[in-house]
Amino acid sequence: MAVRDYTIQFSGLAEGDHRFDFVLDKAFFALFQEEQILGGRVDAEVTLDRQSRMLVFFFDLKGVVEVVCDRCADPLLIAVAGKQELIVRIGEEGESTDDDLVFIPEEAFEFDLSQHLFDYVHILLPMRLTHDDSADGKGCDPEMLKLLERYNAEKPSDNPWQGLEKLLGDTPNEN
Ligand SMILES: [Zn+2]
Questions:
Q1: Is 174 part of any domain?
Q2: Dist CA 140 CA 152 (whole Å)
Q3: Whose CA is closest to 126, among 75, 62, 81?
Q4: pTM value?
Q5: CA distance 62 to 165
Q6: By CB neighbour count within 10 A (0-12 exposed, 13-18 middle, 19+ buried), where does 144 fall?
Q7: What is the distance between the alpha carbons of residues 56 and 40, in angstroms, rounded to a whole number?
Q8: Ligand 1 center–CA 114 separation, angstroms
Q9: Do 100 and 85 meet the contact criterion of CB atoms below 8 Å apart?
Q10: What spacing in Å lies between the alpha carbon of 65 and ligand 1's midpoint?
């Protein structure tokens, strides 16, 4: 998978709202030289409000990521959910000190969202990543690891997340 899959070609888009859906999976997280997130599946609904001199992105992220437990070093599942906003100003000079504001040159015609999506998932992670704080509310549980092995072995088309969602319940970590 190329980062191109997460790049929006905005130059040909009419002004107004445009909707994009992205799936952040194991292959996505593997694009980055960072090992905190091992895999998972996060659905990112992105709405782009295309304006003449500005792109306004709204992100709605929801899913589950696999990380390493800070205590037992075994895999751990964390439910993540949250919204973010990003403003991209076209043709303006400037150094943004604000994470929610980016400047791009006049001649730009596309915008790569991958680093932003990656950062947003990390923002949604709790400070401490241990089984005690995990979405399933259990301690470092061997049953959980068995479950992990099972769905990791399944094909993506089998939708292994269905069982997982049931297990995690409907209590994502809202930041
Ligand atoms: Zn643990």
A1: no
A2: 18
A3: 81
A4: 0.74
A5: 11
A6: buried
A7: 27
A8: 29
A9: yes
A10: 15
Asked whether residue 116 is assigned to any structural domain, the reply reads yes
Which pLDDT tens digit goes with each residue over 39-76? 999 999 999 999 999 999 999 999 999 998 887 778 88
| Ligand 1 centroid, distance to 127 Cα (angstroms) | 15
Phi, then psi, of 64 in degrees rounded to 5:
-135, 135
Rounded to the nearest angstrom, the distance between the alpha carbon of 170 and the centre of ligand 1 is 21
Burial 77-91 (b: 16+ CB within 10 A, else e): bbbbbbebebbbbbe
Between CA 141 and CA 56 the distance in angstroms is 43
pLDDT at residue 51 in the model? 96
Q: Is position 164 within any domain?
A: yes
In terms of residue numbers, what domain contains 43?
Answer: 3-169
Our count of domains for the chain comes to: 1
Q: Is residue 49 part of a domain?
A: yes
Phi first, then psi, for residue 97 (nearest 5°) are -100, 0
Query: 105 Cβ partners below 8 Å, 6+ apart?
Result: 90, 91
Query: Could you tell me how far CA 128 lies from the centroid of its own chain?
Result: 18
